[in-house]
Structures are given as structure tokens and as C-alpha cells.
Amino acid sequence: MIQQTLVLIKPDGVQRGLIGEIIKRLEQRGLKIVGMKMVHVDKSFAEKHYTEDIEKRHGKKVRDYLIDYVSHDPIIAMVIQGSSAIEVVRKIVGTTYPGESPIGTIRGDFAHVSKARAKEKNQGRNLVHASANEEDAKKELALWFSVDEIHDYKLSAEEHLI
Ligand code: CDP
Ligand code: MG
Q1: What residues contact 33, with CB distance under 8 A and at least 6 apart?
Q2: Looking at residue 116, which CATH number applies to its domain?
Q3: Is the pLDDT confidence value at 123 over 90?
């Protein structure tokens, strides 16, 4: 199934000069970028992205940190399209805590902080956000992108990719 998913290069990815490296990994897998922009969101927008669900799963301190952090500096927002793109992108990104994320994933190759350290600091800088499932992707894409910011076009190499 062809899916679209939201990818954010979070402030640590932008600050560390990893925009190109992260985009490269999505492109080299044959995924298509159908929307992309640099945005500096405010706290009330960030609250809509990091919803109460984060608080339920990780606690209030983590949610407060995320809202503060993601609104502190510009980030890159992308709509990525491809076959089972939601799952494929999550694999490229890796798992939540970089120290546990396999080598070869973005989080596993460019960060190393352990789960214990992330919990101790109530913050987990892990470079990228990627929608977790179909329901989240739908909600997050609607939050970050208007319909006219998502482009329907063909890549010249598309017949070899999908
Ligand atoms: O991003 P992912 O879907 O892998 O993880 P999540 O469980 O949806 O959590 C969202 C974000 O919260 C993570 O990407 C981390 O940046 C952050 N987090 C944190 O700062 N401290 C934790 N103990 C857990 C998550
Ligand atoms: Mg998540």
C-alpha cells in the first residue's frame, strides 16, 4: 500500500548539520519527498503535535521538554511517500533511545544516549520524528501540511523504485 508519513528533523538534527544526511537516507531507499519546509513552530502548535498521549506514556516532564525543545529552533518537516512508508521510515529512523537503536539507523548512527540517561535527564534528543502508525500519520500530516503543500508528481526513476 502506498502511504504518506510525517518526518521531522528535530532541532538537534538541524543544529548538528545533519539535514542532508537524514534526507539522503530517505531518498536512497527510494522513498519520495512530496512535501518539505523549514518551520519554527510556537509552543501552542508543538502541544498539538506532542499530545496528552506523550504525557500518558512518558510523563509530564518529558512532554514539557519536548514542547519547549521542538519550538525553540527551526526544524524541517517532510511528507514522505512510498510503499508501506510508515513502517519503512520507522525502520530507517530506528528506536526511541539512540543507545538501543541498531547501527545503520539514523538514531543508531548519529546518537548514542541510553534509555537510562534519557530518563535521568527527562529528555531524549534523537534527531528525528516519524509517525508511528496510520492513525498518527493522518493526524500529523493534517496538522503540519495543507493539501496544497503536498505535491503529486512522478520521479523519473519511479518505475525502478516502486
Ligand atoms: O519518537 P518515538 O516514536 O520513537 O518515541 P515516542 O515514545 O513517541 O516519544 C516521543 C519523543 O519523546 C521521543 O522521540 C524522544 O525525543 C522523547 N522522549 C524523551 O525525551 N524521554 C523519554 N524518556 C522518552 C521519549
Ligand atoms: Mg512517537
Answers
A1: 23, 26, 27, 78, 79, 80, 81
A2: 3.30.70.141
A3: no
